[in-house]
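Q&A log
Question type: sequence-to-structure
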Amino acid sequence: MYDPYAEFQVHHLEGGTPVYILYRPDCAFAHVDFILSVGAHHDSAPDAGLAHFVEHMVCANSGLDLAASKKFFGSAGGYSGAATYHSGTRYGFKLPIHHPRFDEAVAYWVQAIFRNRLSNYFEREMSVIESEIKRKYPSVAQMNMKTESTALNFRGTSWAWAPSPAGTLETLCNLSPKKVEEFHHRYYNLAHLSIVCVGGIDPHVLLQKLNTAFVGCFFGELIDTTVPVVERVVPLEVEFAEYQLSIADPLHRSSVNCTTLLPGTIPAALINVAGAVLSEAVVHEVRDIHGLAYNAGAQGGSRGSVCGIDVGAQDVPTDKVPHVVDMLTACIQKLPTQVEQFMEQREYELLRFDMYDTTLGKVHEAACEELIRYGRIITRVEEYAQFTLLEQKSVEILMPYLASPNLLTLVTHR
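Response status: OK
Response body:
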């Protein structure tokens, strides 16, 4: 089995920063990402969204505005960007390895991330992020509903503080230039940094370029190596709740989602297979038999120390919502009896490894996400082994969490 993740080599800069490199000499490009283990989980509850705001301010004060940055990298067929997650923040770019300004791009991001003062454009970025939040949640009522449901679903962890790393309109108003500067000064240092590079640049050449950029940025300074402590509280139960954004009307359409929260100790492979089995059952019941929704299904996923299975149907007739809720709940509770389907889906997942897309861009993206979430790059051999260990009785692990009292049901009317 071909495993590109097993080919990553770990090097270290002169200051000790780990650099994960997948070298492909036949590739004309290189993807380079600077990953900080600093994300939304470092925000306090009143300041939810602060880590994301700092990311915006780093880019805004980098010396290139968004249009100029796109032109600089895009004109060479590359890209540049940044994103904030719950567990980390990433900044990166893609350029041809022989581009005359490749060294400049490396130095540009090192300087922008660690050494620029974040004193300009505060009001502008406040307005931009307000627009971003409103785009995700078109109405205040919808945002409030999502905030309350997230608080209920992930109570006891920092996931409960906001529906997304961007925060809410309320917490956004609590931020200030001083808080941005303090957060950046406290957490943006080499102790929290990892670098990922995938592409055709020789590892020794890349390390030389990186060392040159970092020496120029950090020369003569002592780096704070204090790593923040992140809570790992895992809620095992959630209450049943229903939120409505408007008065139900038979002519309106609604979306229904049932979420089962699970402890992070349950293997990801088990959750993925269970989600796929549930998705097939929900599509058959809601769409094929009753014709109540075009979009219906289920998926499993993890968020660091917590994970879950989400089952839903979108744009169903509002007067049919109770019926759809009953169908989704029944599908969830019937999961432990679908042993044959469970093992069949397991075989599908194992076959997936033989058809794996090894496009460098996707390998790089997956490696960055795993480094942010788990602090290491997981090989396909490890992931494959998880699926091979699943047995018919594996699904029994989920049984205590599939009862109605553990379901969070959300109904959104449009």
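Response note: The longest helix spans residues 268-289.
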